[in-house]
Amino acid sequence: MPIEISVAAPAYNEAANIAAAVTEWRDYLERHPEVAAWEIVVCDDGSSDGTGRILRELQTGCPRLTVVTFARNRGAGAAIAAAIAATRLEWVVLLDSDGQFPIANLDAFIGRIQAGGVLALSGARIRKADSLPYRWGSAASGAVSNLLHRTRYRDFNSIFKVVHGPLFRALPLESAGMNCSTEITARVAELGHTWTELPIEHRERGGGSRRLAVLARRARPGAVRGLPRAAALAAAPRRAARA
Length: 243
What we know:
Helix content is 37%, strand content 19%. The protein has an eight-stranded mixed sheet with strand order 3-2-1-4-6-5-7-8, sandwiched between helices. It is built from nine helices and eight strands. The radius of gyration is 17 Å and the shape is globular. It starts with a strand and ends with a strand. α1 (18-31) runs parallel beside α2 (51-61). It is of the alpha/beta class.
């Protein structure tokens, strides 16, 4: 049975990428035979480079695009939370607006959802198309997160998530920065759910410059805001479900 999909994404100074990203998402959702109702929600996180203007122009050709606008930059986490909160459909796909996560990755996820028995799925990047410092920071943060939670997720920090809408919209997200994807993984585990990981493609940015995150801070358990109630979580062993 076809499924309903909301795409949720943050955007900050992505004028070089946002039109191509939204167009790619729209074309995929319109043409996929297993996608019924769909929508795209993008939160413009106080961009100063014309991202907001481009999004408003895109709405003319894509009436299913909803734009949430912050008057000032509040951080990736806040933008992610706002985009998720504005979704309405049964399943929510979390993406970034920089073009690094092809929406075609959804093909395998749709089939897994239709098979039943899952509420939270995450994309595990087989080859991360990031610079060495980013890859190192992500690996260190993921290792610490898995240690604290007694899990064995391949890509704890991946932003590519597909989560049942009611569950996603109910998560009490607090992270303001780019560690929000880490917090999402932890929050869902805290509720007793197991993530199903599927391999995904990860490509280089389409253009512009990436926002810098203090990845070394993310790797220290005392400084990771995205790991709520770590001690309680560490007492509940969970393992990744692999399809």
